[in-house]
């Protein structure tokens, strides 16, 4: 199931009947064909309570049932329960390199990619590209069921009171896009989320061990950023500058201009966009897309380049600083540089060589693999939570 079912009913005002509806739905989504008896026994509940919840969800079309015909079984045939997984559907729009991608997702976590039409990708204007992607998603949203909104998983940060989103690295300069710009043409809910926060939310759902204590997710790629969760809850509201580590100043005397407008930022020493000119002098074709850049690095001893060695040193400064600030239990690295075994090993070794001995065993640093599915799941998570809280309220 796309969300942690406990988050559906563990909030002020939830009732036991609502919680039971949520629990039953989660069991059916996770175990299609499960019976009332199995739900009752697994959760040690009263048969009458489970039967009432199932009937409530059946009446609404959230569940449906099929009889299991067993010639060897006497008496009333067993009934198998299934979820109408497309009862709720959401969409996600995210960025891959300089282009937008989109996908639909249902409550079971089934993802259906959408192909952005070629005529929509020719513009270099950030707002125009996003407008086009939004228009196409709305055109292709399912006609049946409940379309609950669109998750926008974007690099950058937002200014909530102004309903704007700012991105600074993808297009080479500051870009400000406004949700009010869409006007009456957008009649669906938009959920704006920083890309790294969407990824963290997805990781917390699929890896329960990351919900213990403090977890930092550290991205090193086209840009550089972090996010933090404490006991499984994101500390960022996904609409602020929290975690913009790449735009902290590491050399105040530097003449290197960052795309954010400052000088001497961490990104000017270690981000893909800043390192590309030097790398291109040594290699003919260097991709900008992060997944393609990761494949490019795989077969090359790029960590021996002076620029990369220097970048590793600066990344180590960033890692040491966030460990001092937040005292995390674990730091998870992802991005094309740490996909590269030798670069990852150097980063990890440097980190442990430079942290105080007393902290050596208290912080675990490792790497994770990222897929676009993480952004789809993470950016639509709160949309599904809100829809479920509303629609799983017991009828009586």
Descriptive report:
With 396 residues, this protein is α/β, with parallel strands linked by helices. The protein folds into 3 domains: 6-83, Arc Repressor Mutant, subunit A; 87-198 and 376-387, 2-Layer Sandwich (Nucleotidyltransferase, domain 5), CATH 3.30.420; 205-372, Nucleotidyltransferase, domain 5. Helix content is 38%, strand content 21%. The protein is built from 13 helices and 15 strands. The strands form 4 sheets. Strands 5-4-3-6-10 form a 5-stranded mixed sheet, with helices on both faces. Strands 13-12-11-14-15 form a 5-stranded mixed sheet, sandwiched between helices. β11 and β12 (224-230) form a beta hairpin. α3 (36-43) packs across α4 (47-60) and α10 (306-326) crosses α12. The longest helix has 21 residues, at 306-326. The two termini are 25 Å apart. The model has no long low-confidence stretch (mean pLDDT 85).
């Amino acid at each position: 199931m796309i969300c942690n079912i406990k988050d559906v009913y563990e909030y002020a005002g939830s009732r036991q009947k609502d919680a039971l509806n949520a629990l039953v739905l989660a069991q059916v989504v996770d175990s299609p064909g499960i019976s009332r008896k199995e739900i009752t026994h697994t959760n040690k509940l009263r048969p009458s309570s489970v039967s009432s919840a199932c009937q409530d969800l059946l009446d609404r079309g959230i569940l449906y049932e099929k009889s299991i015909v067993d010639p060897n079984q006497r008496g009333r045939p067993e009934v198998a329960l299934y979820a109408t997984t497309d009862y709720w559907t959401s969409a996600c729009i995210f960025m891959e390199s300089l282009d937008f991608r989109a996908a639909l997702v249902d409550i079971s976590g089934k993802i259906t990619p959408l192909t952005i039409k070629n005529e929509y990708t020719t513009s270099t204007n950030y707002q125009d590209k996003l407008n086009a992607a939004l228009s196409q998603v709305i055109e292709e949203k399912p006609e049946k069921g409940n379309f609950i909104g669109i998750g926008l998983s974007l690099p950058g940060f937002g200014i909530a009171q102004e309903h704007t989103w700012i991105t600074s690295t993808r297009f080479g300069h500051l870009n400000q896009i406004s949700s009010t710009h869409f006007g009456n043409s957008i009649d669906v809910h938009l959920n704006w989320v920083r890309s790294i926060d969407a990824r963290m939310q997805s990781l917390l759902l699929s890896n329960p061990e990351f919900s213990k204590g403090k977890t930092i997710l550290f991205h090193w790629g086209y840009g550089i950023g972090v996010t933090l969760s404490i006991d499984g809850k994101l500390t960022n509201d996904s609409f602020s500058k929290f975690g913009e580590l790449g735009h902290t100043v590491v050399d105040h005397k530097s003449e290197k201009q960052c795309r954010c407008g400052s000088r001497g930022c961490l990104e000017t020493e270690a981000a893909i966009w800043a390192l590309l000119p030097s790398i291109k002098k040594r290699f003919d074709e260097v991709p900008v897309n992060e997944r393609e850049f990761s494949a490019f690095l795989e077969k090359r001893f790029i960590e021996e380049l002076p620029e990369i060695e220097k970048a590793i040193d600066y990344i180590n400064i960033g890692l040491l600083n966030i460990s001092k600030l937040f005292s995390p239990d674990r730091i998870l690295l992802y991005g094309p540089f740490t996909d590269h075994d030798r670069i990852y090993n150097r980063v990890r070794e440097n980190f442990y060589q430079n942290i105080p001995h007393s902290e050596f065993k208290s912080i675990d640093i490792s790497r994770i693999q990222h897929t676009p599915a993480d952004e789809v799941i993470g950016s639509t998570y709160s949309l599904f939570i809100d829809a479920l809280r509303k629609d799983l309220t017991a009828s009586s």
